[in-house]
From TrEMBL:
Domain of life: Bacteria
Annotated InterPro entries: NAD(P)-bd_dom_sf (IPR036291)
Organism annotation: Dyadobacter chenwenxiniae
Protein name as annotated: NAD-dependent dehydratase
Length: 293
């Protein structure tokens, strides 16, 4: 038993969407808290063995938009104290409202479960380009959002308060390891967005922040989660291309500044004490392989 195990009571946690973020989170939790029980869901049968090898109880849970699985498995997955929902919306692949229906299906299971604590992974993509610093209260309704379905889903979950603790995390662009910004723009010509400040978060810090909440306690709040330094896209693209020997994009000169937003994470800082591993996106850790937790 580790020191942390002796200080923090045993927890049972399910991660709905145990993928690029959820899987390393589960690995990290188990490495620090050997008595915690972690369950993870996936829509890919090939991942179940990897879960088992890492001490994660795996569940194959398609959500189309309801759960296409037997009740025994579904009850077992939701039979926990804490649920982390890391469900990519994939809004371009589905009709409007599909994501909201998925979340409605999740809530139906939460309401008949013993779950008391919920973390919902949302996105700073909900904010329009307001050409200023933006805070959580700038978007509360789908009508005010650049992603109405995401905000509608958030609001469905916050309606579970105060009977359950619901923390909403609006993550910035999630990068690190094999998600390398330069990879997506290498060789592009005359880009016009080089001066835009980025709102990024490294996966290691996203994992660390979720762990901080799990270890120190939940609050019924919505938080922006981004690195505190907002480097420009041009700097980030050029640096990451240089690191891997890729052709850097070029940038067109323009008298008109493109629309932008700078996401503030001050609210989270007021509630939790967390020290970033990667405060500046110019110095994120990348590798051609995923790298695990």
């Amino acid at each position: 038993m580790t020191d942390n195990d002796s200080k923090v009571e045993k927890k049972q946690i399910s991660i709905l969407g145990c993928g690029w973020l959820g899987f390393p989170l589960a690995q990290r939790l188990l490495s620090l808290h050997s008595t915690w029980e972690i369950k993870g869901s996936t829509t890919s049968a090939s991942k179940i063995d990897a879960f088992a090898k890492n001490g994660i109880e795996g569940f194959l849970l398609p959500l189309n938009p309801g759960f296409d699985v037997d009740r025994v498995a579904l009850h077992s997955f939701f039979d926990v104290d804490t649920l982390i929902i890391s469900l990519p919306p994939r809004l371009q692949q589905h009709d409007p409202g599909f994501y909201v229906k998925q979340v409605e299906s999740i809530i139906s299971e939460i309401e008949i479960s013993r779950i008391t604590n919920i973390i919902f992974i949302s996105s700073t993509g909900i904010y329009p380009e307001l050409n200023r610093i933006v805070v959580e209260d700038d978007v509360k309704t789908p009508e005010a959002s650049a992603s109405p379905d995401m905000v509608a889903a958030e609001n469905l979950l916050t309606a579970l308060r105060p009977e359950r603790n619901v923390t909403i995390l609006r993550l910035g662009g999630l990068l690190g390891y094999n998600r390398i910004p330069g990879k997506y723009v290498q060789g592009k010509k005359d880009m016009t967005t080089g001066s835009i400040p980025v709102n990024y978060i490294h996966r290691d810090d996203a994992v660390g922040i979720i762990m901080t909440i799990l270890e120190t306690g939940f609050v019924n709040e919505t938080f922006n989660i981004v690195s505190p330094i907002h480097t420009t896209r041009r700097e980030v693209y050029e640096a990451s291309c240089a690191q891997f020997g890729w052709e850097a994009p070029t940038f067109a000169e323009s008298n008109e500044k493109p629309d932008f937003k700078v996401i503030s994470a001050e609210k989270f800082d007021k509630h939790y004490h967390y020290s970033f591993r990667f405060s500046d996106p110019l110095h994120f850790y990348y590798s051609l392989e995923d790298g695990g937790a």
